[in-house]
Amino acid sequence: MKTRPPLWKLAPALFIACFGHAMAQGYDVAAKEVEKALLLTPDLENGMRVYMICTVCHTPEGWGTADGRYPQIAGQLQSVIIKQLADIRARNRDNPTMRPFTVPQLMGGSQEIADVSAYIAALPMNPMNGTGPGTDIEYGNQLYDKYCADCHGDQGEGNEKKHIPKIQGQHFRYLVRQFDWIRIGKRRNADKEMVEQIRGFRPRDEMAVLDYVSRLKPATDKLANPGWQNPDFPHYSRAPFDAQRFPTVNPLAPAEHDPPARN
Hints:
By secondary structure, this protein is mainly alpha-helical. It has one domain (20-225): Cytochrome Bc1 Complex, Chain D, domain 2 (Orthogonal Bundle), CATH 1.10.760. 48% of the residues lie in helices and 0% in strands. It has 12 helices and no strands. Helix 8 (137-147) crosses helix 12 (203-214). The termini are far apart.
Protein backbone atom coordinates (compact mmCIF):
# COMPACT_ATOMS: atom_id res chain seq x y z
CA MET A 1 0.00 0.00 0.00
CA LYS A 2 1.42 3.37 -1.03
CA THR A 3 1.65 6.05 1.60
CA ARG A 4 0.68 9.61 0.79
CA PRO A 5 3.39 12.24 1.04
CA PRO A 6 3.03 14.63 3.97
CA LEU A 7 0.92 17.71 3.32
CA TRP A 8 3.89 20.08 3.71
CA LYS A 9 5.52 18.47 0.69
CA LEU A 10 2.40 19.05 -1.39
CA ALA A 11 1.99 22.67 -0.29
CA PRO A 12 4.26 24.27 -2.95
CA ALA A 13 2.51 22.42 -5.78
CA LEU A 14 -0.91 23.28 -4.36
CA PHE A 15 0.06 26.93 -4.05
CA ILE A 16 1.31 27.06 -7.64
CA ALA A 17 -1.85 25.40 -8.93
CA CYS A 18 -4.14 27.73 -6.96
CA PHE A 19 -2.12 30.83 -7.88
CA GLY A 20 -2.13 29.88 -11.55
CA HIS A 21 -5.88 29.31 -11.47
CA ALA A 22 -6.44 32.68 -9.77
CA MET A 23 -4.27 34.44 -12.37
CA ALA A 24 -6.18 32.82 -15.23
CA GLN A 25 -9.45 33.92 -13.67
CA GLY A 26 -8.10 37.46 -13.23
CA TYR A 27 -7.07 37.75 -16.87
CA ASP A 28 -10.46 36.45 -17.99
CA VAL A 29 -12.33 38.91 -15.76
CA ALA A 30 -10.21 41.84 -16.97
CA ALA A 31 -10.55 40.85 -20.64
CA LYS A 32 -14.34 40.76 -20.37
CA GLU A 33 -14.44 44.14 -18.64
CA VAL A 34 -12.18 45.69 -21.29
CA GLU A 35 -14.36 44.31 -24.08
CA LYS A 36 -17.52 45.61 -22.41
CA ALA A 37 -16.14 49.07 -21.63
CA LEU A 38 -14.86 49.56 -25.17
CA LEU A 39 -18.36 49.04 -26.55
CA LEU A 40 -20.00 51.61 -24.28
CA THR A 41 -20.66 55.24 -25.20
CA PRO A 42 -18.67 57.42 -22.79
CA ASP A 43 -20.31 60.16 -20.77
CA LEU A 44 -17.61 62.83 -20.34
CA GLU A 45 -19.57 64.72 -17.69
CA ASN A 46 -19.72 61.61 -15.55
CA GLY A 47 -16.11 60.88 -16.44
CA MET A 48 -15.13 64.21 -14.90
CA ARG A 49 -16.99 63.30 -11.70
CA VAL A 50 -15.28 59.91 -11.51
CA TYR A 51 -11.91 61.55 -12.21
CA MET A 52 -12.20 63.53 -8.98
CA ILE A 53 -10.87 60.49 -7.10
CA CYS A 54 -7.79 60.48 -9.37
CA THR A 55 -6.81 64.12 -8.95
CA VAL A 56 -4.97 63.74 -5.65
CA CYS A 57 -2.19 61.72 -7.27
CA HIS A 58 -2.43 62.49 -10.97
CA THR A 59 -3.39 66.18 -10.50
CA PRO A 60 -6.52 67.76 -12.04
CA GLU A 61 -4.58 68.16 -15.29
CA GLY A 62 -3.53 64.48 -15.40
CA TRP A 63 0.11 65.49 -15.69
CA GLY A 64 1.53 63.38 -12.85
CA THR A 65 4.93 64.30 -11.43
CA ALA A 66 8.36 64.50 -13.02
CA ASP A 67 9.93 62.48 -10.20
CA GLY A 68 8.18 59.41 -11.59
CA ARG A 69 5.90 58.69 -8.66
CA TYR A 70 2.86 59.29 -10.84
CA PRO A 71 2.75 59.15 -14.64
CA GLN A 72 1.27 61.62 -17.02
CA ILE A 73 -2.07 60.08 -17.98
CA ALA A 74 -3.55 63.06 -19.83
CA GLY A 75 -3.91 62.27 -23.51
CA GLN A 76 -3.27 58.56 -23.07
CA LEU A 77 -5.16 56.29 -25.47
CA GLN A 78 -8.58 55.40 -24.12
CA SER A 79 -8.21 51.67 -24.74
CA VAL A 80 -4.94 51.66 -22.80
CA ILE A 81 -6.51 53.40 -19.80
CA ILE A 82 -9.42 50.96 -19.85
CA LYS A 83 -7.08 47.97 -19.95
CA GLN A 84 -4.87 49.22 -17.13
CA LEU A 85 -7.84 50.01 -14.89
CA ALA A 86 -9.35 46.59 -15.56
CA ASP A 87 -6.02 44.85 -14.95
CA ILE A 88 -5.44 46.67 -11.67
CA ARG A 89 -8.98 45.92 -10.55
CA ALA A 90 -8.57 42.21 -11.42
CA ARG A 91 -5.10 42.15 -9.79
CA ASN A 92 -3.33 41.37 -13.05
CA ARG A 93 -1.17 44.44 -12.43
CA ASP A 94 0.20 45.03 -8.96
CA ASN A 95 -0.50 48.60 -7.92
CA PRO A 96 -1.37 48.80 -4.20
CA THR A 97 -1.69 52.59 -4.36
CA MET A 98 -4.25 52.59 -7.17
CA ARG A 99 -6.19 49.44 -6.51
CA PRO A 100 -8.41 50.85 -3.71
CA PHE A 101 -9.50 53.62 -6.09
CA THR A 102 -10.50 51.14 -8.83
CA VAL A 103 -12.83 48.93 -6.80
CA PRO A 104 -16.45 49.00 -8.03
CA GLN A 105 -17.65 50.47 -4.72
CA LEU A 106 -15.65 53.63 -5.43
CA MET A 107 -15.11 53.83 -9.18
CA GLY A 108 -18.22 52.01 -10.34
CA GLY A 109 -18.66 49.49 -13.12
CA SER A 110 -17.68 49.24 -16.76
CA GLN A 111 -19.63 52.38 -17.70
CA GLU A 112 -17.65 54.47 -15.23
CA ILE A 113 -14.39 53.00 -16.56
CA ALA A 114 -15.46 53.96 -20.09
CA ASP A 115 -16.44 57.45 -18.90
CA VAL A 116 -13.30 58.29 -16.93
CA SER A 117 -10.95 56.81 -19.55
CA ALA A 118 -12.52 58.97 -22.26
CA TYR A 119 -12.26 62.04 -20.02
CA ILE A 120 -8.57 61.41 -19.32
CA ALA A 121 -7.81 60.71 -22.98
CA ALA A 122 -9.28 64.10 -23.92
CA LEU A 123 -7.13 66.10 -21.46
CA PRO A 124 -4.35 68.19 -23.07
CA MET A 125 -0.85 66.98 -22.25
CA ASN A 126 1.88 68.63 -20.23
CA PRO A 127 4.24 70.53 -22.58
CA MET A 128 7.09 70.31 -20.03
CA ASN A 129 7.36 66.68 -19.00
CA GLY A 130 10.44 65.49 -17.13
CA THR A 131 13.24 64.44 -19.49
CA GLY A 132 16.55 62.61 -19.11
CA PRO A 133 20.09 63.99 -19.11
CA GLY A 134 20.31 64.43 -22.90
CA THR A 135 23.80 62.95 -23.21
CA ASP A 136 23.16 59.94 -25.49
CA ILE A 137 20.19 60.91 -27.64
CA GLU A 138 21.48 59.67 -31.00
CA TYR A 139 22.19 56.21 -29.61
CA GLY A 140 18.78 56.19 -27.95
CA ASN A 141 17.18 57.05 -31.29
CA GLN A 142 18.92 54.07 -32.91
CA LEU A 143 17.70 51.71 -30.19
CA TYR A 144 14.17 53.07 -30.37
CA ASP A 145 13.97 52.61 -34.12
CA LYS A 146 15.26 49.04 -33.81
CA TYR A 147 13.35 47.77 -30.79
CA CYS A 148 10.39 50.03 -29.99
CA ALA A 149 8.98 51.76 -33.06
CA ASP A 150 7.21 48.70 -34.49
CA CYS A 151 4.90 48.54 -31.46
CA HIS A 152 4.83 52.02 -29.94
CA GLY A 153 4.98 53.91 -33.26
CA ASP A 154 7.62 56.13 -34.83
CA GLN A 155 6.76 59.00 -32.49
CA GLY A 156 5.70 56.96 -29.47
CA GLU A 157 2.03 57.46 -30.33
CA GLY A 158 0.97 53.93 -29.31
CA ASN A 159 -1.70 51.73 -30.85
CA GLU A 160 -5.35 52.08 -29.81
CA LYS A 161 -6.51 48.75 -31.26
CA LYS A 162 -3.73 46.74 -29.62
CA HIS A 163 -3.85 48.62 -26.28
CA ILE A 164 -0.20 49.63 -26.73
CA PRO A 165 0.39 52.79 -24.68
CA LYS A 166 1.34 56.19 -25.93
CA ILE A 167 4.78 56.89 -24.43
CA GLN A 168 5.50 60.27 -26.02
CA GLY A 169 5.54 63.08 -23.48
CA GLN A 170 5.91 60.69 -20.54
CA HIS A 171 8.14 61.57 -17.60
CA PHE A 172 11.62 60.07 -17.89
CA ARG A 173 11.71 58.91 -14.29
CA TYR A 174 8.42 57.04 -14.68
CA LEU A 175 9.65 55.40 -17.88
CA VAL A 176 12.76 54.16 -16.06
CA ARG A 177 10.74 52.73 -13.19
CA GLN A 178 8.29 50.89 -15.43
CA PHE A 179 11.08 49.62 -17.70
CA ASP A 180 12.86 48.10 -14.69
CA TRP A 181 9.66 46.59 -13.30
CA ILE A 182 8.79 45.04 -16.67
CA ARG A 183 12.25 43.52 -16.97
CA ILE A 184 12.22 41.93 -13.50
CA GLY A 185 8.62 40.70 -13.84
CA LYS A 186 7.07 43.04 -11.27
CA ARG A 187 4.64 44.46 -13.82
CA ARG A 188 2.82 41.23 -14.54
CA ASN A 189 0.54 42.52 -17.30
CA ALA A 190 3.45 43.63 -19.51
CA ASP A 191 3.66 42.46 -23.09
CA LYS A 192 5.73 39.26 -23.22
CA GLU A 193 7.48 40.31 -26.43
CA MET A 194 8.71 43.48 -24.75
CA VAL A 195 9.98 41.51 -21.77
CA GLU A 196 12.10 39.39 -24.09
CA GLN A 197 13.31 42.35 -26.13
CA ILE A 198 14.62 44.34 -23.19
CA ARG A 199 16.07 41.46 -21.22
CA GLY A 200 19.57 42.08 -22.59
CA PHE A 201 19.56 45.87 -22.32
CA ARG A 202 22.59 47.31 -20.56
CA PRO A 203 22.32 50.38 -18.29
CA ARG A 204 23.56 52.61 -21.11
CA ASP A 205 20.95 51.17 -23.48
CA GLU A 206 18.13 51.74 -21.01
CA MET A 207 19.10 55.30 -20.15
CA ALA A 208 19.67 56.28 -23.78
CA VAL A 209 16.43 54.91 -25.22
CA LEU A 210 14.24 56.20 -22.38
CA ASP A 211 15.87 59.61 -22.53
CA TYR A 212 15.06 59.67 -26.23
CA VAL A 213 11.46 58.58 -25.56
CA SER A 214 10.97 61.30 -22.95
CA ARG A 215 11.78 63.86 -25.67
CA LEU A 216 9.19 62.60 -28.16
CA LYS A 217 6.54 65.31 -28.25
CA PRO A 218 2.84 64.87 -28.99
CA ALA A 219 1.24 66.83 -31.79
CA THR A 220 0.80 70.53 -30.99
CA ASP A 221 -2.99 70.23 -30.79
CA LYS A 222 -2.59 67.61 -28.03
CA LEU A 223 -0.49 69.89 -25.81
CA ALA A 224 -1.70 72.40 -23.23
CA ASN A 225 -0.23 75.85 -22.93
CA PRO A 226 2.40 76.15 -20.16
CA GLY A 227 0.65 76.83 -16.87
CA TRP A 228 -2.73 75.53 -18.06
CA GLN A 229 -5.11 74.54 -15.29
CA ASN A 230 -8.09 72.26 -15.73
CA PRO A 231 -11.19 74.50 -15.58
CA ASP A 232 -13.32 71.54 -14.48
CA PHE A 233 -11.73 71.84 -11.03
CA PRO A 234 -11.74 75.59 -10.31
CA HIS A 235 -11.68 75.18 -6.52
CA TYR A 236 -8.87 72.61 -6.40
CA SER A 237 -6.01 73.84 -4.20
CA ARG A 238 -2.90 73.92 -6.37
CA ALA A 239 0.66 75.04 -5.79
CA PRO A 240 1.57 77.94 -8.10
CA PHE A 241 2.87 76.72 -11.45
CA ASP A 242 6.62 76.46 -11.38
CA ALA A 243 8.81 75.16 -14.18
CA GLN A 244 11.01 73.58 -11.53
CA ARG A 245 8.20 71.12 -10.82
CA PHE A 246 8.97 69.56 -14.19
CA PRO A 247 12.78 69.46 -14.29
CA THR A 248 15.22 67.47 -16.33
CA VAL A 249 15.73 64.47 -14.08
CA ASN A 250 19.09 63.17 -12.90
CA PRO A 251 18.89 59.39 -13.41
CA LEU A 252 21.46 58.85 -10.66
CA ALA A 253 19.16 60.32 -8.01
CA PRO A 254 16.60 57.56 -7.30
CA ALA A 255 13.02 58.47 -6.55
CA GLU A 256 11.41 57.32 -3.33
CA HIS A 257 9.53 54.42 -4.91
CA ASP A 258 12.22 53.21 -7.30
CA PRO A 259 12.92 49.46 -7.15
CA PRO A 260 16.08 48.44 -5.32
CA ALA A 261 19.26 48.32 -7.36
CA ARG A 262 20.06 44.91 -8.84
CA ASN A 263 23.48 43.35 -8.44
